[in-house]
Design goal:
The complex is a heterotrimer. Chain A is mainly alpha-helical. Chain A has 17 helices and two strands. In chain A, strands 1-2 form a two-stranded antiparallel ribbon. In chain A, α1 packs antiparallel against α17, α7 crosses α17 and α8 runs parallel beside α12. Chain B has two domains: 175 residues, Periplasmic binding protein-like II (D-Maltodextrin-Binding Protein, domain 2); 199 residues, D-Maltodextrin-Binding Protein, domain 2. Chain B is of the alpha/beta class. Chain B is 43% helix and 15% strand. Chain C is mostly helical. Chain C has 14 helices and four strands. In chain C, the strands form two sheets. Chain C has a two-stranded antiparallel sheet with strand order 1-4. Chain C has a two-stranded antiparallel sheet with strand order 2-3. The longest helix of chain C is centred in the middle third of the chain and has 33 residues. In chain C, α2 packs across α14 and α5 packs parallel to α9. Chain C has a domain of 236 residues: MetI-like (MetI-like fold). The chains are: A mainly alpha, B alpha/beta, C mainly alpha. Chains A and C meet through α1, α8, α9, α10 and α12 of A and α1, α5, α6, α7 and α8 of C.
Chain lengths: 386, 406, 341
């Protein structure tokens, strides 16, 4: 804002106040998450120590022989710095170049996955290999300074097969986002373009549904899902499935619960697309559906991405539905973590749970990093006007 | 989806190849089990998995699901893990089968003590007992010259001495988290004072002398406890112990071995266990006896039931116990009580012995009412009498709704 | 748009909502006026349970449900009118407490305690969330362009992090000798137990909720700030409006629709507050309306659950929500009549 008019310039105290407030907020926002990150790398004794310095430096963990030397820290920070830089600069470029036209989202999914995998491999496999060598050579500089152990991550992901939960989360989340957006865009478009009273009442009822306490609904599903084989047998014969534990059934439930929000949000995006656009398409001989598919959808992507992100968060973070309706072999990550706490746990279990919690937060980090701009621009373009 | 199938297949084959070595037979019937998720169940279900084709689900919230899953036809699980509390809905709805034939065929290694009989029929196979025992810091007791207390009055005296000496943050710990835990602690104390929960006509009777005494003692205990006791569950108390913040607690026996866990405990070897204290001199210890065990669903074919029972027997054998000796107070052949199990065994074999927690609908309703309503007394919102009245009112409403009280 | 086309477009969505939301809702509505009981009988039962060495056998009279020839429990279902509601609301005790002007006694009835907290929580967090969100948005908008990206990223974290985990991470900072409690103890030089009394727990819950939701308000406001009409702003400057006046008379009116939008989403979400009660295990001190319903539905060890009372309390919760929504419903109706077509 180089051309800021003089009257818009701010006094020093205002600028300092504003910057100070922002710094305080960032500290508040990041600290709890940062802290569980720190805890997850310590031995149980250190992780729950009352003295914050002990938690950070982890003397017991260090005595156990696991730790980071100055070299480790420096190289690690350099690695992280470049990783972030790559994610923000290089990755979008590569995706844009190599994705086939119109399929940018697929490029993003592949790109992000490849990036995430190489990041993890680099941090946990290649870097330690190099550093082990370096530490041995460098003597005093190579002595551990901060206690740090990745053993909890190892037991979570390898011993307890957390990757299965990860895959389940992936299935449920992808399912919910796809179905939710497909069904939701259709309905959102229909509602935005119809002025009938019916449309109005559908919206109102959806709004009331949006406000319902979920535990009420969810408790009703359990008996039906558990007994679905018996209930459906007269209709489907011997092949009637037991819906309890099926990811598909959970996807259907989550999509439905999320529908009210999705259609409201998408409707307001559609309302911002001028009606003349589809009328022009109709004049050219398109049906309503063709107009929707070939004329409206291409300009709707910001709205779809923003709404999709909200669906993603809902599905990924859901606890109530997934914990009640999925069995162990199909469980997603959030209820799996709650399982760690609900067990008659040892302190080690708890730190493992913390490590698992940090693990499931990591993909969210990546997601926000990538889509941050789209969220803001999407909201600016659409929902915020409605 | 493909990746998952691939990984699953890999995992399965890995399990399968190990399985043959450990399990006496190769199980070919698809079996699923549902149980709680504590250490002993981990050990047992791992042993089952060695027989192949067994999918174990361990879930601490299993009680929400188990009655409905077993009532489905066919039952979603063949094998269930229960305790004397959670077996009740399964007994009520007749969704578990009598095991007499199967025990005769495959149960040669079972001790008579393990067979849970209801009206003479074997309905479940117990594998372990659980109860509270008094854990204490032997080093502190020695240093201050305190005798190991046998009654709650002595516990309070000892706590006062420890408080005086100021060697730990809080002399006492207790599992008084609102809800199930608080209810359980009250039930223990109430029975310790010789209380009867019901009158002859089925109306509740907790607002009695025993109830007042129990609350009074519990309130006296809180003087020596972390003020956050209404959120402290077993794991929290165990952690307080491990970090050397408390000196005594009447805690579940299944928690004992955690005190000696290198790597998370700072008091390794310093904690000993004695029988749960008595509320009244000469009475039974103020606690209840619990067992955990296995049931087989009734809505399944006989072949499945047979396979399920054989797998269960494989898990409840000597090898499993020897490999996981300290995970529980096993009832199974081959168990050698460790140092920290002695307290629980002393509790269980006291004369007179503590009563077993009863498997009835009424007990479940009473437990809920106690757990929910007593908190008001400890927060100071209600007097002891008001709180107990509230318990009785809540129980009456719930019992009338459940049809067990006119 | 013809009705047929309209139906084809909204059909799948409406079908899903009818199946998975409306249908359970009807069950709940009917259930609120019904009482389903098993038919029970008293039976003598000998139970043998293990001790450590030997078994003890006791014979007691217990109630067991009667089973029919298919092995199903025989149940009776009765219409009980408002009984379930009376049991939840306990008008007798409430009336007595109100007549005696005894607040503490009124709070002994769970429903009113839950209602008090739910309303307090909703109404207190609302201005805090709006205020914090707006303040962050203004501050970010004010910051140098180069740091905006990272700041937005950090600010969004509390919103995207899984609620269960967010609540736990804050709980760990405070429970027992958690590091923040220890820090407070050192600073104030006294022993502090954050989970020992209601007001500190409520404070932590309020903090958590604001922490969790303010980023949502922030990002919406921030998007809104990007579309503030610069001409209006400049003419306000020419008219000599101070910074505060510009905020008050230009920016806030511009953001008004967004404020209403966030307020409504927030009211709906906060009114069904639940995760905080579980995450902070505050049942002893504080409960909420949805938690009350959940608690009625949660089976105990013996498998008992109070479906009738749960339904009634759910219906009462819904009535409250409809009240909260009336202003928005009226606005939507006006928009609809004003018509975009």
């Amino acid at each position: 804002m180089s051309d800021t008019p003089r009257a818009m310039r701010q006094s020093l105290s205002l600028r300092l106040g504003s910057a100070g407030f922002l710094a305080l907020w960032c500290l508040l926002a990041a600290f709890p998450i940062f802290w569980i990150g720190v805890m997850s790398f310590k031995s149980p004794v250190d992780a729950f120590d009352a003295n914050p310095l002990n938690v950070i430096f982890g003397p017991v963990t260090r005595d156990g022989g696991d730790g980071l030397s100055i070299i480790d820290i420096v190289l690690g920070l350099v690695y992280l710095f470049f990783a972030v830089k790559l994610a923000l600069g290089w990755l979008p470029k590569m995706v844009a170049q190599h994705s086939p036209g119109g399929q940018v989202w697929a490029g993003w999914i592949i790109g992000a996955l490849a990036y995430a995998i190489s990041f993890v491999v680099g941090l946990f496999v290649i870097l330690p290999l190099i550093l082990n060598g370096l530490n041995a050579i460098l003597g005093p500089l190579g002595n551990p300074l901060i206690g740090l152990t990745t053993i909890h991550y190892w037991s979570v992901w390898v011993d307890n097969a957390f990757y299965e939960n990860f895959i389940n989360s992936l299935i449920v989340t992808v399912g919910v986002v796809t179905v939710s957006l497909t069904v939701g865009t259709l309905a959102g478009y229909g509602l935005a373009r119809s002025g009938s009273n019916l449309a109005f009442w559908i919206l109102i009822i959806a709004l009331i549904f949006r406000a319902l306490p979920h535990s009420v609904l969810v408790a009703g599903y359990l008996p039906v899902f558990v007994n679905s084989a018996e209930i459906l047998r007269p209709i489907l014969g011997e092949n009637a499935p037991t819906l309890y534990g099926q990811p598909l059934a959970v996807i259907a439930v989550l999509v439905s619960i999320n529908q009210p929000f999705t259609i409201w949000m998408l409707r307001s995006f559609f309302q911002n697309i001028p009606n003349e656009l589809d009328e022009a398409a109709r004049v050219d001989g398109c049906t309503h559906f063709q107009a929707f598919r070939w004329v409206i959808m291409p300009v709707m992507w910001p709205g779809v991405i923003t709404t999709g992100l909200f669906s993603f968060l809902l599905a990924y973070n859901d606890f109530l539905v997934t914990s009640l309706l999925l069995d162990q072999s199909n469980q997603t990550m959030v209820p799996a973590i709650a399982g760690y706490f609900n067990r008659e746990t040892t302190t080690t279990d708890q730190v493992e749970a913390v490590a698992a919690a940090v693990s499931i937060t990591a993909p969210l980090f990546l997601l926000v990093m990538i889509f941050q701009r789209q969220i803001v621009s999407g909201l600016t373009a659409g929902a915020v006007k409605g | 989806m493909k990746l998952k199938t691939f990984l699953m297949a890999g995992a399965m084959s890995a399990v399968a190849s190990v399985a043959m070595a450990e399990c006496a037979f190769e199980n070919e019937v698809e079996l699923r089990s549902l149980s709680a998720g504590f250490e002993a169940w981990n050990a047992v279900t791992d042993a089952w998995a060695e027989c192949g084709n067994v999918q174990a689900e361990l879930n601490q919230e299993f009680r929400t699901l188990q009655p409905q899953a077993f009532a489905a036809d066919p039952s979603l699980y063949q094998i269930g893990g229960v305790s004397n509390g959670t077996i009740t809905p399964l007994l009520n709805e007749g969704t578990i089968r009598p095991l007499d034939d199967l025990v005769e065929m495959y149960g040669q290694n079972l001790r008579p003590n393990q067979l849970i009989r209801i009206n003479g029929e074997i309905m479940a196979i117990a594998m372990m007992v659980n109860t509270q025992h008094l854990m204490y810091r032997s080093d502190i007791f020695e240093e201050l010259g305190i005798e190991v207390p046998t009654t709650w009055d002595e516990v309070l005296e000892a706590a006062a001495v420890i408080q005086e000496a100021g060697v730990v943050d809080y002399p006492l710990g207790a599992t008084m988290k609102t809800g199930w835990n608080l209810g359980e602690d009250f039930i223990n104390m109430f029975l310790g004072y010789g209380g009867e929960f019901w009158n002859a006509d089925g109306t509740p009777n907790v607002n009695s002398e025993a109830g007042m005494n129990a609350l009074e003692t519990m309130m006296a205990m809180t003087e020596f406890m972390d003020p956050e006791y209404l959120v402290s569950d077993s794991t929290y108390v165990q952690q307080q112990f491990q970090q050397g913040r408390i000196a005594m607690a009447n805690l579940w026996a299944s928690r004992g071995s955690a005190m000696d866990l290198e790597g998370e405990s700072q008091v390794v070897g310093l904690v000993d266990a004695a029988a749960a204290p008595m509320a009244v001199e000469g009475a039974a210890p103020a606690t209840t006896l619990w067992w955990d065990g296995v049931v087989i669903a009734s809505n399944i074919s006989d072949e499945e039931a047979e396979a399920a029972f054989r797998v269960v027997m494989e898990g409840l054998d000597r090898e499993m116990v020897e490999a996981n000796n300290d995970a529980a107070i096993w009832l199974i052949e081959g168990y050698e009580p460790g140092r920290l199990a002695l307290g629980a065994i002393a509790t269980a074999s006291a004369t007179p012995p503590p009563p077993a927690y009863p498997s009835t609908s009424q007990m479940g309703l009473m437990h809920t009412a106690l757990g929910n309503e007593l908190a008001a007394f400890f927060t100071g919102d209600a007097s002891a009498e008001e709180a107990l009245e509230a318990v009785e009112a809540a129980y009456t409403t719930a019992a009338q709704e459940a049809g067990v009280l006119e | 748009m013809k009705f047929k086309t309209f139906a084809a477009f909204v059909g799948p969505s409406v079908f899903l909502m009818l199946l998975f939301i409306a249908a359970p809702l009807v069950t709940v509505f009917v259930g609120a006026f019904q009482l389903t009981q098993p038919v029970v009988e008293m039976v003598e039962e000998e139970t043998c349970t293990p001790g450590f060495v030997t078994q003890t056998c006791t014979t007691t009279t217990v109630t067991r449900p009667v089973l029919d020839e298919f092995g199903e429990v025989v149940t009776t279902t009765e219409w009980v009118g408002w009984t379930n509601f009376t049991r939840v609301l306990d008008p007798e005790a409430a009336g007595a407490a109100i007549r005696a002007m005894d607040w503490g006694q009124l709070m002994q009835v769970d429903f009113y305690a839950a209602l008090r907290f739910t309303l307090m929580f909703t109404l207190v967090t609302l201005p805090l969330v709006l205020g914090t969100g707006l303040a962050i948005a203004l501050a970010v908008n004010n910051a140098a362009r180069s740091i905006r990206g990272p700041v937005i990223f950090i600010s969004l974290l509390p919103f995207i992090v899984t609620p269960v985990i967010g609540a736990l991470s804050i709980r760990w900072l405070f429970i027992g000798d958690g590091i923040l409690t220890s820090a407070l103890e050192v600073w104030l030089d006294r022993d502090i137990a954050m989970f020992a009394q209601a007001w500190t727990i409520e404070l932590m819950m309020l903090f958590y909720r604001v922490w969790h939701v303010a980023p949502f308000a922030f990002v919406i406001f921030y998007a809104g700030l990007q579309t503030v009409n610069q001409d209006t702003l400049e003419s306000a400057i020419i008219d000599g409006a101070s910074r505060w006046e510009r905020l008050r008379y230009v920016i806030i009116p511009h953001l008004m629709p967004l404020i209403i939008f966030i307020a409504l989403i927030h009211l709906m979400d906060t009114y069904r507050v639940f995760e905080e009660i579980v995450g902070f295990t505050s049942q002893a001190h504080v409960i909420s309306l949805q938690w009350l319903t959940y608690d009625f539905l949660q089976p105990d060890d013996a498998g008992n659950r109070a479906f009738g009372r749960a339904s009634a309390s759910a219906m009462l919760t819904m009535v409250g929500i409809v009240f909260l929504l009336i202003p928005l419903l009226r606005r939507t109706w006006r928009d609809h009549k004003g018509g975009s077509h």
